[in-house]
């Protein structure tokens, strides 16, 4: 999702321009939350990032489009996109004056089961038009957009999930593992995780690849980066060494390497780009 919205989710920074709606008890094992954000129309380009929670990002109208620029290609996505896995140096540019986006944020594992996807589906294409697999799973995008209020859209999605009786939740040990990684904000090693949760590495690797599509090390790296990113963009005086070390990096060079991998820019160049 656009990282500026993920920032608000991570910090719980909500107001009338961006807020969360909790899912009903019937689907709260699958959906982490529904989010509505108003766009600043002066900013037409956003960095995309995924913290391990797959999302569907619906534009305001069914005819609205965005241009997705990756490391190797440029593509156009209409109406809604799905993203998961590790998104590296991908930007989205809004082609229409969409002034609001509606985001459905899923728990890792549940998303793939719901849409009958292999967890590796997004490894090479972490930003994908939803229509690539929606129709095969009886999700009608056109019917979704016939509903105009947020309440109606949420009801439509929740009913779809409840009607998908084949969906089952991921195991408790994996949830416990994910909770531990989130609580430590990525400042942990795979060894720390296996020791804390009481599982062996082979089980951990198989479970992550089957349910999340990432290696445990990759998932930890996403959490470490997003927390370092939040500290960076929230700092008045930028001290890269302090930010790096406080977020579990060995030194500023390791943080710089990760930052350029995910954003395509150095931290200072990104801050300048973001302020323009």
From TrEMBL:
Coiled-coil zones: none
Key word Transcription regulation present in the record? Answer: yes
Tell me which domain of life the UniProt entry assigns to the organism this sequence originates from.
Bacteria
Domain HTH araC/xylS-type residues, every copy:
175-273
Q: Which UniProt keywords apply?
A: DNA-binding, Transcription, Transcription regulation
Record Gene3D superfamilies: Homeodomain-like
Q: Which InterPro entries match?
A: AraC_XylS_family_regulators (IPR050204), DUF6597 (IPR046532), Homeodomain-like_sf (IPR009057), HTH_AraC (IPR018060)
Alphabetized GO MF terms: DNA-binding transcription factor activity; sequence-specific DNA binding
Listed name of the protein? HTH araC/xylS-type domain-containing protein
